[in-house]
Design goal:
The complex is a heterodimer of chains A (about 375) and B (about 260). Chain A is of the alpha/beta class and about 375 residues long. Chain A contains 15 helices and 9 strands. Chain A has an 8-stranded parallel β-barrel, surrounded by 6 helices. Chain B has about 260 residues and is an alpha/beta fold. Classes of the chains: A alpha/beta (about 375), B alpha/beta (about 260).
Chain lengths: ~375, ~260
């Protein structure tokens, strides 16, 4: 069993032809379905559907309020290492970049945890660069169990693992797994990932399933917008989410559509999704997966994030540092994994959520040991 | 209206509308909704209670006169539900516990088997146990035998607002259960709640439809009225439904009348 079998069915699919054939009536019909099918989803992602943004937004809002209420869940990322053995041409942590590499020891992690907990944040996302050698499972396990004593929920975003390694992180107290495929288009994937374990497309693609087998309560996936053609990429991410949803009844599936912004290096994304397109992609996802968590990070601008609150998203990060550590003391190195566009504090983001008539939720989970 | 109290465990309720704390756009709306709806019991997920949150702790928005019904949302096994229940009691949330064990994130169906196991354990520990279940009569009997204080069958999937999709199965519970039957989940409009009460449900629990309304306090009031109306109709004994029309002046009534003189 693997999502690969599903995605391979679309190898020769003629997306442009499909998009050309979409008529306005098809969009309306797709939007109004209680359970849109795969082609309805693609219809809503089509350029033609861009004319239906407002009705799509209304439907997305209605579905989201029904399933999640007027609430936005808050979380904060903590990077504990930027060592990486991969060579991803778009990433600030690329192993060929001459940046200062750091890894926090447990004492430093604890200092960061204290500083973050003081902001009121209770849901933490723990991240590393992808280096099995520098951040082995023993280290990650120890970090998770330390952080679990400070936070109600600890999620992990790190190199893809086998089921047994995921099980160790679960046992240490991690309850959710985030892993982005970055780009679903296999050819582009090959061109952008030049060296390291990450060159293995299939191992990464199957990792969310392995995480579900290992018993993570929630799995968050997504493409990095800008690497592949955005409409197709979001289509595959949606299929991936539905696949997980269909196969793992007890797993909550979530998605995020991080848009590339400048990091270290001179990477110029081949594709771009402007705000209007980005909103369409998000709305189509919401209509296709009404109960999926949708996350928007601080890659996006503050004012744009404020508007998205009413358009179907359910989770926001806030007060984020995307360099190693950075909460207890300022980040020494100058190279974060990506540049934060929304630099507001946790409190300011919470106030902005309340101003939209939504409740900021700091705590929605507690792993009962 | 006549006094028509409902007793669950050792506690008596005047209002037969139970409510929930999830999905509100601001916690302050909860107190207002409770005041307008007259609801005397409200469910709260232990996982959302943040004892360290000071004034923002959700419990501060619930008046002391309202009974807390902590729920085990997030539990996937009987064991987890039991642990959550014990933590809730230790945290001062009282003896009531709504057991919610869900192993299915897609449809949010309760796991009846795990729920029964948790009920057996918690009832022995002197909890007032309200298990949230798919309506299933043999299971309801086992829950009663295990010491459940009520059974809470779902009308439709949580948050779906689809009403009494399980009507026929709930009717069996109402007819046969000795403990109160509280219809929980899926009631999307006051008329759904009224229908449940007309059938003879002892109470209903409504969260999504109230919390996500434009005006939650007014919607809480509307549900309270519907619950009272439905209850009153049940007590007043609704006349039986019939598949065919019954004219109030029967069409064949003349046959029973004394014969008329035929025209000359």
């Amino acid at each position: 069993m693997s999502f690969t079998t599903t995605i391979e069915k679309y190898t020769d699919f003629e997306f442009e032809k499909f998009f050309d054939r979409v008529r306005p009536d098809d969009v309306t019909a797709a939007m109004e379905k209680e359970k849109p099918g795969v082609l309805d989803f693609l219809t809503m992602l089509s350029p033609r559907a861009a004319e239906f943004l407002e009705p799509m937004a209304r439907r997305a809002q209605q579905l989201t309020v029904q399933h999640f209420g007027r609430t936005i869940h808050l979380f904060i990322p903590l990077y504990i290492s930027n060592y990486c053995s991969n060579q991803c041409v778009y990433c600030g942590f690329n192993c060929t970049h001459a940046i200062t590499r750091r890894k926090l020891d447990l004492k430093e992690i604890e200092a960061e945890a204290r500083a973050i907990a003081a902001t009121g944040m209770q849901h933490l996302l723990l991240l590393t660069g992808e280096s099995v050698e520098m951040t082995p499972i023993d280290y990650l396990e120890a970090a998770v169990s330390l952080l679990k004593s400070y936070f109600a929920s600890v999620g992990v975003e790190m190199f893809p693992m086998q089921v047994d390694a995921y099980q160790r992180l679960r046992a240490a107290g991690a309850d959710s797994l985030t892993l982005y495929q970055e780009v679903y288009d296999r050819q582009i994937y090959r061109r952008l990932h030049l060296a390291g374990r990450k060159t293995d497309y299939r191992f990464r693609l199957d990792a969310p399933e392995r995480g579900a087998w290992a018993g993570f309560r929630a799995i968050n996936i997504g493409p990095l917008i800008g690497l592949g053609e955005p409409r197709r990429e979001v289509f595959f991410a949606g299929l991936h989410a539905r696949y997980l949803d269909d196969h793992f009844l007890d797993t909550e599936v979530g998605l995020s559509l991080p848009r590339l912004n400048p990091a270290e290096g001179d990477f110029r994304p081949e594709y771009r999704a402007d705000d209007r397109t980005f909103v369409q992609l998000l709305l189509a996802l919401r209509l296709f997966m009404p109960r999926a968590a949708l996350t928007v990070s601080t890659r996006e601008r503050a004012d744009f994030r404020n508007h998205l609150i009413r358009l179907g998203i359910t989770r926001l990060s806030a007060g984020s540092c995307t360099g190693v550590g950075g909460y207890a003391r300022p980040v020494g190195e100058k190279t974060p994994q990506f540049v934060v566009s929304d630099t507001r504090s946790v409190q300011q983001v919470a106030e902005a959520i309340a101003a939209q008539g939504y409740q900021p939720v700091y705590k929605d989970w507690d792993l009962i040991a | 209206m006549h006094r028509d109290p409902l007793t669950i465990g050792t506690q008596t309720f005047t209002s037969r509308l139970f409510t929930g704390t999830g999905k509100f756009s601001a916690k302050a709306q909860i107190a207002e909704m409770l005041a307008r709806s007259g609801s005397e019991m409200i469910t709260v997920a232990l996982r959302r209670i943040d004892m360290g949150a000071g004034t923002e702790n959700i419990l501060n928005f619930i008046p002391k006169t309202v009974t807390l019904l902590p729920n085990t949302s997030g539990a996937r096994t009987a064991q987890e539900a039991v642990r959550i229940a014990r933590i809730a009691r230790e945290a001062g949330c009282g003896r009531f516990i709504k057991i919610e064990v869900i192993t299915d994130s897609k449809y949010l169906m309760p796991d009846n088997w795990e729920t029964l196991k948790a009920t057996e354990i918690l009832a022995k520990e002197d909890f007032v146990v309200l298990p949230y279940v798919l309506p299933d009569l043999p299971l309801a009997r086992r829950l009663e035998a295990a010491g459940a204080a009520a059974v809470m069958p779902l009308g439709a999937p949580i948050g779906s607002n689809r009403g009494l999709e399980t009507r026929a199965l709930i009717a069996l519970l109402i007819e046969n259960c000795r403990v109160p039957v509280v219809v929980d989940a899926g009631l999307g409009r006051p008329s759904h709640a009224a229908a449940a009460m007309e059938m003879g449900a002892d109470a209903v629990l409504v969260n999504t439809a109230i919390a996500t309304a434009q005006d939650p306090a007014a919607m809480g009031h509307a549900f309270a009225l519907a619950v009272s109306a439905g209850r009153m109709a049940f007590k007043a004994k609704l006349s039986e439904e019939s598949a065919t029309a019954r004219a109030s002046s029967p069409l064949t009534g003349f046959l029973d009348s004394p014969p008329q003189k035929s025209p000359q």
